[in-house]
Amino acid sequence: VSGNGQQELLYALSGEKPSPHANDILIKGQPAGRLNPAQRRKMGLRFVPEERLGRGAVPAMSLAYNALLTGHEDGMSNTGFISHKRMRDFSRHCIDRFSVKCSGDHAEAKSLSGGNVQKYIVGRELLLKPDVLIIAQPTWGVDVGAASFIRQTLVNLRKDNVAILVVSEELDELFEICDRIAVIHHGKLSPP
């Protein structure tokens, strides 16, 4: 159930807010607790926040520019110059692969339904080939077909040895995706 410390955990793990347990955060065995989000991304961490617009995507920016937010190191920019072709190609690939209903890569994120924004953000992060993926409410607001596709994609990533932390209120979703489940209650994490 929301409100038991999940957001605080996500903020600490993504690097968005300092954690009193910073020394306990490791990425691929390397200390990461004192690193900012960009530094953690360089180590292979990808993050899908619960809040789609604002944290996951900039509402007034096109989908192509939203791809640049987290994919700038994936050939979309070099020494401060943006590769508009690479950015648009990546965005179009994400739209096609994750069946995002929109008018194209030029569409503003705020013009999409909540489910389509979610598919785009999840797709963007998955296409960036994470080593570690933290994902909150992965199928919130998406249709049944898209939810099934996202879940299967996460299962496939798990089989490819990607470390995945899923925060979800959907128990069936957790049973389908996860190897281990822990519960946060009143800010305390249960043993896995």
Key attributes of the depicted protein:
single chain, 192 residues, alpha/beta, 3-stranded parallel beta sheet, two-stranded antiparallel ribbon, 42% helix, 14% strand
Explain what this protein looks like in three dimensions.
42% of the residues lie in helices and 14% in strands. The longest helix has 16 residues, at 144-159. The chain has a three-stranded parallel β-sheet, sandwiched between helices. It has 192 residues and is α/β, with parallel strands linked by helices. It has helices at residues 6-14, 37-42, 63-76, 84-97, 114-127, 144-159, 171-177, and strands at 26-27, 30-31, 45-48, 77-78, 81-82, 132-136, 163-167, 184-185, 188-189.
Summary, kept brief:
This protein is of the alpha/beta class and 192 residues long. The chain has helices spanning 6-14, 37-42, 63-76, 84-97, 114-127, 144-159, 171-177, and strands spanning 26-27, 30-31, 45-48, 77-78, 81-82, 132-136, 163-167, 184-185, 188-189.
